[in-house]
Specification:
single chain, alpha+beta, six-stranded mixed sheet, nine-stranded mixed sheet, 40 strands, binds flavin-adenine dinucleotide
Length: about 800
């Protein structure tokens, strides 16, 4: 191993766990030279050494599945390449259900597996017992087997990746701690270590549970908190055999695998014990924490119930150590917002082994190409980590819930229970008085549905129609037939102002922003490939001042994307004013009637046409009113300074009484927009899809001059589209859909649902999917097919729509 730390290098990777090793390995594969990996103590001494080594293939999204599939394939081959075997054994995995809810959940998971191409086989109790002789099958309702899963030796796997990296030229330094960073012009230009400084262009933080405090040194948000995490291993037990599938018992929050003739048992409990709030001890190296038998006892009892032989088995070892968990069970990857060429690859939530290779590959791509070329991964993108999330009190409260959720029942709309009431609309109290049932999105408490009087506003989760289904239907129909109000104060607002503001926005928007003052321009922010980075509106307030509106969830990402487009020295001031505004939508055929009662502004289509904005008086408030609608009805979005929001809300509700105004929750907003075919980033549109494929070509103005992505879009236009986003409705009125359900054309799996909901006006579930045809997609081909969707293992016929199945065609929405 080289001893002398260099003074210069191109890339510094911090952390010698599996993620640092995998990143180093993949950088060499992409031809990135001059890479140094720095580890404070010994390789794998953080968390990697302790892992159980399960490589579980069925993750929640296509990107996650792809990452794991890739890892699993690499781990099988890696030993041949590097001479260091990973210990991969393709054991397969069995999931069992032990109550009705879990049985239904397994059906949902099987649909997901079908859709994502993960091989899974339902097995009967005989086969289950045969494969798992030690299992007490009493109370087991169903089981499915995924033959391609396996186990590895985590340390061998990390060291094999490190060996491959070394062969590719990466220099590795142990016993070298990164202490600080030197910044210049928004970039880390040197890493300060216990053995001297290294100047560098690119830095990657692969420091597991140390990452939060290292991130703090740079003012970036890496909201993770370590929790204790454990497994125990028994001496050999008869019935445990080499190569037996590992088993997941989600209801017991337990997993089991064979280990040297005995069993390794681990768990994912709710209320995990937090660790390292004040930081991780300096001397941490392969550290084991004291066992807390009181804490482990309930899980041990559950394990004995499922595997009676454990009662008399001797425990060889209990490993209790720590792992980092994030607020939402997702990793923290990508280039950190606000800092150039500084990447994070941390927050592994006890899946750093199974996803390690995939994370390393994505991170290396990000560094080499400027984006994750094998597919975006928004769910794990660090631009979802807002600065407020570094609040240690919040992290401390939230982190213990995260491990449990990994094995929690995956009900649709399930909400986190801890760390609530962080960000609340100025109208929160009023919404609560109206019976709001709140859900949390990136900290925002949002009214998802409203309980009628006498009903408790509380989710009763199930895989069927949940308790709020009928209330959501009434809210939906109020917008279609009367008038409704929703609070979307979680939307983000930015101001861009200055002599160069227009040209900057023109350079990244597909649509023409050079519109008259007061015109609202709906546009996508595009990347060089013509892909959609964001879906926003831009309103010219003055010749040099623009009001930009985007979704709250993507506020940080979109802000960063726009900010990076501002050339050095440009005359443009760009600020996030989201906390300054509340937003109320007043929507429905009676929206004008309602507003006319509280304003003397002329709301006629002649005076206030669709797609325009102006300040009007509403009660005593003076919101910026935008004639837009995300729900496909006549309506106005009212952007009001937060301190005027309550007054404006009261005025609207009072005036709406005789119009029977209803509160609309965000579940209804979603079903309304789906019926009308409005797209949502990132489920329906994303950096890999273009406006032309998504039916948003109307928002691209090729003749406005040059803009990012134009070349790619022109090429796509010339060559013809290969795929197209279409809508569908299920012919049967019963099934409910959410995301990623498999879509079949003439019996063959061709796509999956990007996002779906129940369309209460249409009387059926409605969703969107991409259809692809080799050699160019033709309408005729789409129409000729016969289509089905898989819902919980049953295939239902669907009707494909080339245009939105609900469209008031101007009569109502634009009147
Ligand atoms: C009991 C248990 C069971 C698990 N089972 C599984 C499983 O079956 N499957 C699975 O996929 N995952 C499992 N995991 C999770 C898995 O082990 C982790 O997700 C993974 O090891 C994290 O890897 P990492 O590289 O991010 O972090 P680490 O392995 O912690 O590596 C980070 C490294 O950064 C170094 N470092 C920190 N600060 C500095 C600094 N300032 N300068 C230099 N170096 C620094 C540390 O010393 C450390 O070596 C399990 C974890 C536990 C605890």
């Amino acid at each position: 191993m080289t001893k002398q730390l260099p003074t210069h290098t191109k890339v510094v990777i911090i952390g010698g766990g599996i993620i640092g090793c995998a990143t180093a390995y993949h950088l060499t594969k992409l031809g990135v030279k001059d890479v140094v990996l720095i580890e404070r103590k010994e390789m794998t001494c953080g968390t990697t050494w302790a892992a159980a080594g399960l490589v579980y293939g069925l993750r929640g999204t296509p990107q996650m599945v792809e990452m794991t599939r890739y890892g699993s394939e690499l781990y099988q081959e890696l030993g041949n390449e590097t001479g260091h075997p990973t210990g991969f054994v393709k054991t397969g995995c069995i999931n069992i259900s032990t109550n009705e809810e879990r049985r239904q959940e397994l059906e949902v998971l099987r649909s997901l597996a079908d859709s994502l191409g993960v091989e899974n086989l339902q097995i009967d109790m005989n086969e289950l017992q045969e494969r798992w002789p030690l299992l007490n099958t009493e109370g087991v309702l169903s089981a499915f087997y995924m033959p391609n899963d396996g186990v590895v030796n985590p340390v061998d796997t990390a060291m094999s990746l490190a060996a491959g990296a070394r062969t590719g030229g990466v220099r590795i330094f142990e016993d070298t701690e990164v202490l600080d960073f030197e910044m210049k012009n928004g970039q880390v230009i040197a890493v300060k270590t216990s053995k001297g400084d290294i100047q560098c262009e690119t830095t990657v933080l692969c420091t597991g549970m140390w990452s939060r405090e290292l991130g703090r040194k740079l003012g970036i948000s890496v909201p993770i908190h370590a929790c204790e995490h454990w497994h125990f291993i028994t001496l050999p037990i008869e019935g445990a055999y080499k190569g037996m599938p590992y088993m997941r018992d989600p209801e017991g929050h337990l997993y089991y695998r064979e280990e040297v003739g005995g069993l390794l048992i681990g768990g994912f409990e709710y209320g995990a014990k937090i660790y390292g709030t004040k930081g991780i001890p300096d001397d941490w190296s392969f550290r084991e924490l004291p066992e807390d038998m009181d804490h482990l006892e309930p899980m041990m009892q559950a394990a004995i119930k499922r595997i009676p032989a454990l009662e008399t088995a001797e425990i060889r070892r209990i490993t209790n150590t720590a792992e980092s968990f994030t607020f939402d069970n997702m990793y923290i990857l990508g280039e950190a917002p606000g800092i150039r060429k500084f990447y994070t690859a941390c927050g592994m939530n006890s899946s750093g082994i199974l996803c390690g290779a995939g994370v390393g590959k994505k991170t290396a791509e990000w560094i080499a190409h400027g984006y994750p070329a094998s597919g975006h991964i928004w769910e794990a993108d660090n631009r979802r980590c807002f600065s407020w999330m570094m609040n240690i009190n919040w992290l401390k409260d939230r982190a213990p819930e995260t491990p449990g959720n990994l094995f929690g029942t995956r009900y649709p709309f399930k909400q986190m229970e801890t760390g609530r009431n962080v960000r609340m609309s100025a109208l929160h109290g009023r919404l609560a008085e109206q019976g709001a049932c709140f859900g949390q999105l990136f900290g925002w408490e949002r009214a998802n549905w409203f309980a009628p009087e006498g009903v408790e506003p509380k989710y009763e989760y199930s895989f069927g129609r949940q308790n709020w289904f009928e209330y959501g239907a009434a809210e939906h129909m109020a917008a279609r037939e009367g008038v409704g109000i929703y609070d979307l104060s979680s939307m983000a607002e930015f101001i861009m102002q200055g002599r160069d503001a227009l040209s900057i926005l023109q350079s990244i928007c597909g649509n023409d922003i050079d519109a008259p003052v007061g015109k609202v321009v709906y546009t996508q922010l595009l990347n060089d490939r013509g892909g959609i980075e964001a879906d926003i509106t831009v309103t010219k307030l003055k010749e040099d001042k623009f009001f930009i509106v985007t979704a709250g969830a993507t506020a940080l990402r979109d802000f960063d994307y726009i900010e990076r487009a501002i050339p050095e020295g440009a005359h443009a001031f760009f600020i996030d004013v989201s906390s300054a505004y509340a937003m109320l939508g007043v929507m429905g055929p009676n929206a004008r009637k309602l507003l006319e009662k509280v304003t003397n502004a002329d709301l006629s289509s002649e005076a206030f046409p669709f797609g325009t904005a102006k300040e009007i008086a509403v009660g005593y408030a003076t919101p910026l009113a935008m004639r837009m609608s995300f729900v496909g009805e006549l309506g106005w979005e009212l952007y009001v300074p937060t301190d005027f929001a309550v007054g404006m809300f009261d005025a609207l509700m009072e005036s709406g009484k005789d119009l029977d105004v209803k509160m609309i929750g965000l579940h209804a907003v979603d079903s309304l927009r789906l019926e009308r075919g409005f797209k949502h980033w990132p489920s329906d549109i994303d950096p890999e899809s273009t406006p032309l494929e998504a039916g948003l070509g109307f928002a691209v103005k090729f003749n406005k001059g040059d803009f990012r992505g134009k070349k790619a879009l022109l090429k796509q236009k010339q060559e013809g589209l290969k795929r197209r986003l279409v809508m569908f409705t299920i012919d049967d009125a019963e099934p409910l859909i959410y995301q990623e359900e498999p879509i079949y054309r003439n019996g063959e799996l061709v796509s999956s649902n990007t996002h779906g909901a129940y369309g209460h006006y249409l009387g059926a579930s409605v969703g969107m999917c991409y259809l692809e045809q080799a050699g160019g997609i033709k309408e005729e081909w789409i129409k000729e097919g016969s289509y089905e969707i898989g819902v919980n293992g049953i295939k239902y016929p669907i009707t494909i729509h080339l245009a939105a199945p609900y469209d008031p065609k101007g009569e109502r929405a634009r009147m």
